[in-house]
Amino acid sequence: MHSSYSCGDGTLGEPPRRGEGQCGNMRLLLRQQQRILLGKSDVAGWGAFLKNPVNKNDYLGEYTGELISHREADKRGKIYDRANSSFLFDLNEQFVLDAYRKGDKLKFANHSSNPNCHAKVILVAGDHRVGIFAKEHIDTSEELFYDYRYGPDQAPPWARKPEGSKRDESEGRAKKHQSH
Question: Selecting from 1.25.40.10, 3.40.50.1820, 2.170.270.10, 3.40.50.970, what CATH number does the domain 24-64+104-150 have?
Answer without folding.
Answer: 2.170.270.10
